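Memo to structure team: turn this sequence into structure tokens by end of day. - J.P.
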Amino acid sequence: MARLGVKGAVIGGVYVPGDIAVSDGRVDQVGLPPGSGGLAIPGFVDLQVNGYAGVDFSVATEDEWLEASRRLAQSGTTRFLANLITSEPEVIEKALAVARDVSTAKAPGRATLGGVHLEGPFLAEPKAGIHPKAHLLAPDWQVLQRWIQLGPIAMATIAPELPGAIDIVSRLRDSGVVVSLGHSEASYQEAIAGFNAGATTVTHLFNAMSGVTAREPGLTGAALSRTDVWLQLIVDLLHVDRVLVELVSTVAAERVVAVTDCLPTSGTSEAHLSFGGTRIDVVHGRAASRDGVLAGSVLQMDQALRNAVSCGMSLVDAVNATSRNPLAVLNYPTESLLAPGDVADIVIVSDSLDLESVFLGGVDIHKQEVR
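Reply from structure team:
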């Protein structure tokens, strides 16, 4: 049995003072006499990862996926969804097949692939953003059925105002796929219809969706008004103004799900890439096309945690936004996170919330050499 030496931990979504002991890859005891400092929190869970460490999941091999997963784990993200944006059907199908193989691969020391987030192609053209408009499709259940059989689709983003979209939302829900509304011009009523049909979350709140005006709340207002909707939010303070993050932290902190929407260059020093067929430049941490369209981020989850706290979110709410809440979106149990018996996928942050250690199955992997 080994103690972590922390002053406290967030266990099952609640702060518990005292140290944690780990044994045989699992949490053994909690609430022990406190250590010298720091906080133990569950490993980060990111529902929107386009790639990492130079690996683009849409075109990568199985070995490249596994390498990116290893590097993600070293950054503190111990579970993730691989994000596939709008592409030619054959590109999506090939990536889904690779994801299927990765999800069953035996490779220690890597973040767990929780499945694929299919962000497109069933999106509204005016809100497509960086998604190539030439490959957008109308909602089609036969296409989705084929893709569900090909690979582990855990979440799908859809614009609810598209013809046939509400029926697709219901079918996806019944198939066990989490439905997120996004890249949408939906009116408030159209958004509410999507939630009533089974959508439970929104893709990057405020970004690429109809906003709030004096007489039309849009998808943004609908999501904020529904207490049963999870609010995925890119907390890099570039995609969403700090004032709006502060507002959400005030009115709905317990529903925030921090996501990075990170690009393949994340975790590298590269400043240029081709993504979805578009050249992207990263300048001062802002990733955009030459037309100025934002294209994901280079945010890492530990920075998202610090940013959330800096915007007024309580420490526990911010920790939950990076771990417990995304698991809840995926309908995973969360009450036992870091409780005795739980797998010891643990991040230790300093009193200033800087990343200090990452334990995967009780093994400290953060300081292992990064290729």
